[in-house]
Amino acid sequence: MGISFTIYEEQAFFVSTWxxxxxxxxxxxxxxxxxxNEKFKPGFxxxxxxxxxxxxxxxxxxxxxLVEMMQRYLTEKCDDFKTAVIAPDNISFGMSRVYKSMSYxxxxxxxxxxxxxxxxxxxxxxxxxxx
Length: 131
Hints:
5 strands; alpha/beta; 131 residues; Transcription Regulator spoIIAA; five-stranded mixed beta sheet
């Protein structure tokens, strides 16, 4: 399965949908492809939907490499952006909190939520837009 992205250029955000068993390789290759996509612009906010994902094979090393990649691609190209992570289960919630702490000194402002509506409210996106 993996990670797919839907980019909303006019609204300056994208949704990452994580489905099935995600590995470090999935994580890194998916985001590399995103950052190199011509529709993606540095500074776009993200809604990371982990509701259908299993993260048992994502390691702290993989998350650290993702933070390094994000910084390489985005640090000098944008001031800041929000990432709202929807992580309803304990494993994805805990791992997302670890990622949040790893990205502390980056342009990415991460918050982790259990519910979609809370994430949308924080990132200032109308719920009806995604339905």
